[in-house]
């Protein structure tokens, strides 16, 4: 029987849903606080940089001829030398997956279940993530298509805010009164993180390089959604108001009124759980794929359980959203480093191997 493969639509939907993290709800505040007036334009700039990073990954897929990142580097460097890098990658990927869930449940607790311990909510979500992970990457990719379609159905809701949109609130100045563009770049780039896991799709994907188009499309759709929503927030609120709102997107959704439902923002935030589950699952899966290179004889299921248990106990440490965001800040820097370093590292190894090959 032929082995299953990830194709363009699988990769596109996986990247889209992995990128759509909880940062989405704070993105307008990040843009206003760190970029100032018309900060929504910074989303486009960051999206372009993310696209360049995807291009580097596509080069690895092209010149590596479908060989996984791990096999490429291990053919040139002994595994024991790579062990510190693999452990670092496992720790970063796993903690990102853990904190994605932690951040979501802290906000969920604040909005809906203030009397329920956050660790209980996290345990429930972690169990859902684990059940999804146990099905394997191919089943995840298929189920994720349905999840994404449900999320995309929510996008037309934002059309309702166009009647209250006022272009005067945008102002005529650009990137003024921002606190720190460099710090804001790191925070905003964290909202785009998720495409880097496509580097680990290579051995599971179709041998045709066309599957990478899905990664580009997924990143493009995320950039479009982020830019559109941030732009609407800038026209609905002033950028000064956005600076003082913890979750501008939830505040925006609170203006929606339906006769059959109260507090629509809580319902929509609950629906967003499906994106959090996929995002966390893909980061835990990336951590498992990396750790398996060091422990090939241990079954992947056991590695996943071990990783999730370890991160679950670590999640006891950050107790507030402020602390979680601080941890995310440090992890974001590490993720940005890995997102650029790993494909460049693989390309350098491929170039070195090509030059060492004897010319016929």
The CATH C-level name is Mainly Alpha
Radius of gyration, in Å, reads: 21 Å
Number of domains: 1
Could you give me the name of the CATH homologous superfamily? Amino acid/polyamine transporter I
Helix content: 55-70%
- The tally of beta strands, per DSSP, is 0
The CATH topology is given as Amino acid/polyamine transporter I
Low-confidence stretches: none
Report the biggest beta sheet as strand number plus sense, adding barrel if it closes.
Answer: none
Total helices: the number is: 15
Helix-strand pattern, N to C? Answer: HHHHHHHHHHHHHHH
Distance linking N and C termini: 37 Å
Strand proportion, as a percent range, falls in: under 5%
Mean pLDDT, all residues: 87
CATH architecture: Up-down Bundle
Indicate the overall shape: globular
Secondary-structure-based class equals mainly alpha
Which key terms come to mind for this protein?
360 residues, Amino acid/polyamine transporter I
Question: Mind sketching the topology for me?
Answer:
Layout: H1 8-19, H2 27-35, H3 41-63, H4 69-74, H5 79-111, H6 118-133, H7 137-152, H8 181-192, H9 212-236, H10 239-243, H11 248-253, H12 264-271, H13 273-291, H14 300-314, H15 321-356
What does this structure look like?
By secondary structure, the protein is an all-alpha fold. The chain has a single domain (8-348), classed as Amino acid/polyamine transporter I (Up-down Bundle), CATH 1.20.1740.10. It is 67% helix and 0% strand. The protein has 15 helices and no strands. Helix 2 packs antiparallel against helix 8 and helix 13 (273-291) crosses helix 14. The radius of gyration is 21 Å and the shape is globular. It starts with 7 loop residues before the first helix and ends with a helix.
């Amino acid at each position: 029987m032929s082995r299953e493969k990830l194709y363009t639509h699988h990769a596109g939907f996986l990247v889209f849903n992995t990128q759509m993290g909880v940062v989405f709800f704070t993105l307008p505040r990040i843009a206003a606080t760190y970029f100032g007036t018309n900060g929504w334009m910074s989303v486009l700039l960051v999206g372009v940089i993310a696209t360049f990073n995807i291009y580097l990954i596509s080069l690895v897929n092209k010149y590596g001829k479908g060989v996984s990142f791990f096999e490429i580097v291990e053919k040139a460097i002994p595994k024991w030398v790579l062990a510190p890098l693999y452990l670092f990658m496992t720790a970063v990927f796993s903690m990102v997956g853990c904190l994605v869930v932690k951040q979501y449940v802290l906000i969920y607790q604040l909005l809906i279940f203030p009397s329920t311990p956050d660790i209980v909510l996290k345990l429930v979500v972690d169990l859902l993530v684990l059940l999804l992970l146990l099905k394997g990457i191919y089943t995840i990719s298929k189920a994720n298509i349905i999840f994404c379609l449900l999320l995309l159905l929510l996008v037309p809701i934002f059309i309702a805010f166009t009647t209250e949109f006022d272009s005067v609130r945008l102002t005529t100045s650009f990137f003024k009164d921002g606190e720190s563009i460099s710090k804001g770049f790191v925070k905003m780039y964290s909202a785009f993180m998720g495409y880097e896991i496509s580097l680990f799709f290579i051995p599971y994907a179709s041998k045709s390089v066309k599957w990478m188009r899905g990664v580009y499309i997924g990143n493009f759709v995320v950039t479009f959604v982020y830019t559109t929503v941030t732009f609407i927030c800038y026209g609905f609120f002033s950028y000064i108001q956005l600076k003082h709102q913890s979750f501008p997107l939830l505040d925006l959704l609170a203006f929606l009124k339906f006769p059959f439902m109260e507090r629509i923002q809580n319902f929509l935030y609950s629906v967003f759980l499906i994106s959090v589950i996929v995002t966390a699952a893909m980061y835990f899966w990336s951590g498992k794929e990396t750790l398996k290179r060091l422990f090939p004889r241990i079954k992947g299921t056991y590695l996943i359980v071990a990783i999730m248990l370890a991160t679950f106990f670590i999640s006891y440490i950050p107790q507030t959203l402020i602390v979680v965001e601080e941890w995310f800040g440090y992890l974001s820097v590490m993720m940005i480093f890995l997102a650029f370093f790993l494909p460049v590292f693989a390309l350098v190894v491929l170039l070195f191997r090509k030059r060492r090959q004897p010319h016929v």
